[in-house]
Amino acid sequence: MRSDRIVIVGAGPAGMRAALVLAGAGLNPVVLDEAPASGGQIYRRQPRGFTRAYDKLYGFEAGRARALHAAFDADNRIDHRSGTLVWNIEGRRLQTLHDGRPETVEFDRLLLATGAMDRVIPFPGWTRPGVYTLGGAQVALKHQACAIGRRVVFFGASPLLPLVASQYAAAGAEVAAVLDTTPLRAKLAAMPGLLAGGKTGWKGLVYLARLAARRIPYRHGITPVAALGSESVEGFAYTDASGRRHEIECDAIAFGYGLKSEWQLADLAGCGFEFDAGNYQWQVVADEAGRSTVPGVYLAGDGTRIGGAELAEIAGERAARAILTDLGDTGQGAALAACARRIGGQARLRRAIERAFPFPAPLARAIPDDCILCRCEAVTAGEFRASIDRLAPHDVNRAKAFSRVGMGRCQGRICGPAAAEILAAARGVEVKEAGRLRSQPPVKPVPVAAFADAAEDAA
Amino acid sequence: MNTADVIVIGGGIHGCSTALHCRLRGLSVVVVEKDHVARHASGVNAGGVRRLNRHPAEIPLAMASAALWQRIEDLVHDDCGYRQTGQIRVAEGEPGLAAIAARRRLVEGLGYSHEQWIGPEELFELVPAISRHCLGALWTADDGHADPTRTTRAFARQAAALGAEFLTPCRAGMPRRAGGGWQVPTDRGTFSGAQVVNCAGAWGGAVAAALGEPVPIEPIAPMMLVTARMAPFVDPVVASFDRMISFKQSPNGSVVIGGGWRSRAEPDANRAHVEFGELHRLIGTTLDLFPVMRGARIVRSWAGIEGAMPDAIPVIGPSMTAPGVIHAFGFSAHGFQLGPIGGAIVADLVESGATSLPIEPFSIARFAGQAWREAS
Ligand SMILES: Cc1cc2nc3c(=O)[nH]c(=O)nc-3n(C[C@H](O)[C@H](O)[C@H](O)COP(=O)(O)OP(=O)(O)OC[C@H]3O[C@@H](n4cnc5c(N)ncnc54)[C@H](O)[C@@H]3O)c2cc1C
Predict the structure, then answer these.
(1) B313 pocket-lining for ligand 1 (C-beta < 6 Å)
(2) Alpha carbons B64 and B362: distance in angstroms, whole number
(3) CA A439 to centroid of ligand 1, rounded, Å
């Protein structure tokens, strides 16, 4: 058992906790992450020389962040390789770029804790400088204490919406408005579930109260119209629940519709997928302990199922204990059951969050024809619809071949959900019938020069 | 029972072209495709429309096909993304120059003049971005490239518009004799026809084997790399006589790199994975030839399943064991350009049992009686 090479991809809460559990059992896990430091998105650390305090950086999560950082940093059985982008999986080998140089990392057991990214619906003007995702806006603030603008509009449907807006307000940026695409009715219907969900549910209310205290308008049931401006963002236009048009002056916009699992590596590893109706997206199939359908490949955290940092950490522990069990350790039963209980206890809250910030599929289906859908390949929604009308693709991979939507550097991670909705609308089917874009290596762009240098080294 | 004059197995470019040309001759056609049209080699190839450096036996066919590419829009009512950018094959060293000299002797000896020698100055003028170590090249000015999916679909669409029936997804079982004709069992019932055409690509060997004439076909998986979009810097498709590479910039700016690097094909699982193991050599060649590529980023890769014959030319022509069956498969990684003419040849054979193009070298008979055994 001791000789098994265990590799964890992702040094967020799921990957860090898993590494700690494995190290605690006497193993030496390798942890790979493309970021310069551990922490993942939520517990992202500030660059060297920055000195903000934990409670300033992580708010309610400061204690948890501090504990995890400290334990992870102190454990010298963990081989953490930061600055390592894993861009391909071939059999039992990971292909990586470590500080820009190609390196192969072999594994016997692999835990994918690859996290999530913002889910986006393109809208007119979204490619203008000054438009960010909610997560991107948060990273700018958390990592380098930068705001994306002086006067910012936040919109979408995401737990990040009230959170990031209140973080911006607290940091001294002017929050022009917070505009939620979810109708007030739906939000109220989700309230009991949120409040029954314990601390996490109440935190959401605190953010709302903080926004209200600063007299920042929070509107429900809005529909985005456009990011205005001649070059960069100068304003935001939307219609309210009664259909009236409004324009707000601003120099930056942050938007998003919840999170989307980063599962490209799981796809390359050959893992099975299923459409999750609650989360309204494709997720990697995992058993109750985080085992994927591929023997030796495990999953934890938002990369498997969106649930947030607390759940990710438990899922990381659980996957680590599943690995220990599979390595022959028969003493993990009780701890595994405890993890399962804690995760199960959050199920209701999770459902409530999904209902409070639902993905507005009709919005995606109604993207105007002249709006850019795939920004990598510069394809408009109208061009995409025309190719569907002409060539009748039955799934998104075919649609991609016909239209180039999803062929560019993001491989459809950004435009994919909206493209699938448009295709489903044209075919008159549910979005899951439109299928899932297959991943191709490299999962993120890899500079040609890196290979060349490696070839020279080898020569 | 369903009947047609011709039952075509396979909806790649050769199956679709066969369907179109049969319809143009008034024959009724059913195409049976186990996945969907253009799912395999025909939809994922590099799109090279190339006569340059073809096997001598293929030159007459490639010339005839080039004539059809010239008027592709008349044929299929779609321009297929076809662009006559030219194709260039450079010499990077003495071996390359020697290969060019031998090639010129061969091609000119056969009476062709489509492959022209260009010296360094002319090369650098045609391809300013190419590295100055190149010593010259062979050039076909009116070769080019097209969009493979779009082309194959256009053939299918036009064939269907003229009345061909396409069954997709629908797997064909092995043909069996019935009366004077043939029956093909499929997922959607049995079809009977006077003639059967085997356009099953990498799977074509299975059909031939079932008819008692096994061939040494190898399923291969050529790999391609794609970069993020770059400002336009090269027009023609560029290859080398010294190293394995095929290089072109798409109209949208992305650079597509291939050249015959192969990974493992899994035809039974419909899968071909990209294996990056050796591709760093391809990337090295890329950088040698185009220094501007140092700033490029690879964003995707893919591999497609193709059938390769040991002599690298396809099987085209009537079955030796099964009268009424015609083969057109195993195009060995360069059958896209031959698509437009391939269907015309098959339609000739269906209609009259003969064609005016010289297809003897492609006969399946060349493998009969040979002492070979399929690997595994
Ligand atoms: C990556 C790559 C790059 C290439 N680049 C070029 C290039 O630049 N220029 C060029 O000229 N050529 C190129 N080629 C080669 C070219 O793509 C092929 O030679 C050509 O497409 C072959 O066409 P086909 O119709 O014979 O085969 P395919 O397109 O493979 O079609 C055969 C079809 O038959 C179907 N089939 C098989 N068995 C059955 C069954 N039992 N029932 C029903 N259906 C069945 C399959 O599903 C398949 O769709 C390339 C190939 C690849 C893979």
Answers:
(1) no
(2) 16
(3) 22
Q: What radius of gyration, in Å, describes the C-alpha atoms of chain A?
A: 22
Which ipTM score applies to this complex? 0.86
- Candidate from A404, A448, A458 with C-beta closest to B298: A448
Q: Are strands A131-133 and A252-256 parallel, antiparallel or unpaired?
A: parallel
Domain boundaries, chain B: 2-58+148-217+309-375, 87-141+218-307
Q: Which CATH class is domain B87-141+218-307?
A: alpha beta
Q: Is B17 on the interface with A (CB under 8 A)?
A: no
Q: How far apart are CA B226 and CA B212, in angstroms?
A: 41
Which chain B residues have a beta carbon less than 8 Å from that of A407? 226, 254, 300
Two domains, one topology: B2-58+148-217+309-375 and B87-141+218-307: no
- Look up the CATH superfamily of B2-58+148-217+309-375: FAD/NAD(P)-binding domain (3.50.50.60)
Residues of chain B found within 8 Å of residue A391, distances taken between Cβ atoms = 153
Torsion, Cα B191 B195 B200 B203, to 10 degrees, reads 80
Q: Is B261 in the pocket of ligand 1 (CB under 6 A)?
A: no
Tokens representing B194 are: 């006077």
Cβ distance of B294 and A402 shorter than 8 Å: no
pLDDT, average across residues A412-418: 96
Element (H, E) at B30: strand B29-32
pTM here is 0.91
Q: What is the pLDDT of residues A152-180, one digit of tens each?
A: 999 999 999 999 999 999 999 999 999 99
Q: Is B236 in the pocket of ligand 1 (CB under 6 A)?
A: no
Residues of B with Cβ-Cβ distance to A394 under 8 angstroms: 36
Instruction: Tell me the pairing of strands A281-284 and A101-106.
Output: unpaired
Domains of chain A with CATH codes: 6-117+260-352 (3.50.50.60), 120-257 (3.50.50.60), 361-434 (1.10.10.1100)
- Check if the beta carbon of residue A166 is closer than 8 Å to that of residue A210: yes
Whether ligand 1 lies within 6 angstroms of the CB of B31 is answered as no
B302 touching A (Cβ < 8 Å): yes
- Which tens digits make up the pLDDT trace of B62-97? 999 999 999 999 999 999 999 999 999 999 999 999
Tens-digit pLDDT profile for residues A294-333: 999 999 999 999 988 999 999 999 999 999 999 999 999 9
Alpha-carbon torsion, ordered B362, B364, B369, B375, to 10 deg: 100
Shortest alpha-carbon distance between residue A401 and chain B (Å): 7
How many Cβ atoms sit within 10 Å of the Cβ of residue A161? 27
Q: Is B248 in the pocket of ligand 1 (CB under 6 A)?
A: no
**Is B293–A451 a contact, with Cβ atoms under 8 angstroms apart?**
no
CA closest to A390 among chain B residues: B157
Candidates A95, A376, A448; nearest CB to B286: A448
Q: CA of A96: how far to CAs of A266, A303, A412, in Å? A: 15, 19, 21
Could you tell me which of A35, A33, A34, A6 has the C-alpha nearest to residue A21?
A6
Nearest in space to B6 (alpha carbons), one of B27, B24, B21: B27
Does B269 contact A at CB distance below 8 Å?
no
Asked whether B326 and B350 are in contact (CB, 8 A), the reply is yes
**B315-344 burial, b if ≥16 CB within 10 A, otherwise e?**
bbbbbbebebbbbbbbbbbbbbbbbbbbbb
Return the ligand 1 atom nearest residue B10 CA: 34
Contact at CB, B300 and A440, closer than 8 angstroms: yes
Q: Which helix (H) or strand (E) holds A70?
A: helix A62-74
